[in-house]
Amino acid sequence: MMTDARPEPADRTPTSNPVLKRALAWGGVLAAVILVVSAVLGYVFAGMPGLWGGLIGTLMAVVFMGITAGSILVANRFAGSDLFVGIFFGIVLGGWLLKFVLFIVLVFVLRGASWLDPMVVFLSLVAGVIASLVVDVLVVAKSRLPYASDVELPKAPEDE
Amino acid sequence: MDATTVLAEINGHIASVGYGLAAIGPAIGVGIVVGKTIEGVARQPELAGRLQVLMWIGIAFTEALAFVGIAVAFIPFP
After folding, report:
1. Disulfide-capable partner of A117 in A1, A14, A50, A58 (CB 3.0 to 4.6 Å)?
2. pLDDT at residue B68, rounded to an integer
């Protein structure tokens, strides 16, 4: 009887997934902190419009910075596919383009709004962007990735 | 009206010119980051995981410039 000698198809999920998940989690924690701080500071300096500005600015920064990691995680679900590289860059760069279109639309919609303070939005957005960069760098610096990551050794043959 | 006055006359919103300038750098940067990642993965597919993390942090830093550039529209100019 002929047996299929080829090994089982290995799990080809790239090893970057845990790092990205950790970055998203820590980014969320820090976002909550900055959300509170910028809302309080906005309220102190500009009243209710400042509070809304702080909330919206921080949320925009964190959500839009997190979309990159999220899109890589989504794209890695197709790791077993033959077209993985194409699908991966399609999803990641497509998400990037979509994100910027959304961002510009939001800027145009929110710029004329009288119920939020634009300067507070700008400052909290910059604070959120810088904070999420800091989180990203810390997570990557502390992460351990095996050098030859996505290699799976063939399994030992089983006795019949 | 002398030549200087004519050249200095701009119609429309000057912030859109600023956005165009702010988009040039990140566009080139992300193009290089992603292109080099494709090269690396094509050369050594087993390093895809490591390269993805490096690509992600490269994109994050590059796009931060674009975000700040677009967000400048929020600064209230007199």
Report:
1. A50
2. 86
The nearest alpha carbon in chain B to A144 belongs to B50
* B52: closest CA of chain A, how far (Å): 6
Report in angstroms the alpha-carbon separations of B53 from A20, A61, A156, B57: 7, 20, 32, 6
Report the alpha-carbon distance of residue A89 to residue A86 in Å, rounded: 6
At B51, which amino acid appears?
L
**Residue B16 neighbours by CB under 8 Å, 6+ apart:** none
Give residue-wise pLDDT tens across range A53-63.
Answer: 899 999 999 88
Interface pTM, i.e. ipTM: 0.72
What pTM does this model have? 0.77
| % of chain B residues with pLDDT over 70 | 85
On chain A, the residues whose CB falls within 8 A of the CB of B42 are: 85
The rounded distance, in Å, linking the Cα atoms of A113 and B25 is 30
Express each pLDDT in A61-72 by its tens digit.
988 888 888 998
Tell if the CB–CB gap between B74 and A107 is shorter than 8 Å: yes
Contact by Cβ (8 Å): B73, B33: no
On chain B, the residues whose CB falls within 8 A of the CB of A93 are: 34
Whether the Cβ atoms of residue A88 and residue B45 lie closer than 8 Å to each other: no
